[in-house]
Amino acid sequence: DVKVTQSSRYLVKRTGEKVFLECVQDMDHENMFWYRQDPGLGLRLIYFSYDVKMKEKGDIPEGYSVSREKKERFSLILESASTNQTSMYLCASSYRDPEAFFGQGTRLTVV
Amino acid sequence: DQQVKQNSPSLSVQEGRISILNCDYTNSMFDYFLWYKKYPAEGPTFLISISSIKDKNEDGRFTVFLNKSAKHLSLHIVPSQPGDSAVYFCAATSGTYKYIFGTGTRLKVLA
Fold this sequence. Notes:
The complex is a heterodimer of chains A (111) and B (111). Chain A is mostly beta strands. Chain A is built from no helices and 11 strands.
C-alpha cells in the first residue's frame, strides 16, 4: 500500500511565523504535490515537484515555497503565515500513472 | 477561470437508488479524468478514472461516463449505500500530472 504521511494533523500558528509542513511518501514516486482545500473552492494546486530539487508553481503559489532535497520528502513552507492561509493542506504523490495518492491532510489555523 | 466545474454542491439520494454526480470541463487538452472520494478529516482517495480515448469505465458499483463533445463526465453509483456519503471531486489532467480539481459535490445517501 502506498503511504503518504503528513507530519501533523492539526497546527495552530501565529501571524508572521514561518511554518513548515512536511510530507513523506514511501513508494519512490517521482511526482509530489501540495494542495489546499477550502470550502466552495475545491482543491487548488500550490506547487508540485517532478524530481528532486525540481519544482513548478501551481495555481496559487503566492506566499508559499517548497523544498525537495530527497525523493521521498516534499516540504511546504509558509514564509510569513497570514490568516488567509488558514486551510486544509493536502500532500499527494504519483508515479507514471495519473492517479495520485493523498496524505491525510494538515488543518492549519493561523491566528 | 475554473477549468473543471462541479455545479452541484450537494446531492441526496435514497439508499439503493442511483447517484449521478456531474462534472464539466473547459480545456480540450485534458486527456485523463479521475474521481476522488473524501471523508471529513481525511485525504481524498482515488475512486475511478477514465482516459479520453474511452467513453465509459466501470469498477463494481462505480461507472464513469465521458462525453468529449460536451466536455462532460459523470460518475454513477449503483446501488448507493450509506457508506458512499462523502464529498466527491472530479479531476482532470493533460498528461503533465498537474491535476485540476473541481469544487466537489457532497453526496448524502439516506438509509
